Amino acid sequence: MSSIEYVATSDQLLEEVDTYFLYVSGLPVINKDNKCIGVLSKKDRAKAAKGLQSTVGEVMSSPAISLFADKTVKDAAILMLKKKIHRIPIVNEENKLLGIVTRTDIFRALEGQS
């Protein structure tokens, strides 16, 4: 699991979070209680009808497909394959964001097992 460096809120304009995509290909979307409510990817951003003047909430994938922290690398990999997604927010029992698992995290974990 990677720590969270970038997050968005549903009311932010894409213009406000656009520079994050220089560093990541997707980011979790949280509400005021730090609960994960969606994910915003480069693909979502590209579909924005109003371009960078669209809000995150208008284009994000929601609800977020997430996992609890006690799940395994295998659980995350299977979920990514089944849902055809590239990142999974990791949440606690209250759905509060703890971190994120990316394809790179999966590959690194599997590499360490060999």
Automatic annotation (TrEMBL):
This is CBS domain-containing protein. InterPro entries: CBS_dom (IPR000644), CBS_dom_sf (IPR046342), Diverse_CBS-Domain (IPR051257). Residues 60-114 form the CBS domain. It comes from the Eukaryota. It comes from Ceratopteris richardii. Coiled coil: none annotated. Keywords: CBS domain.
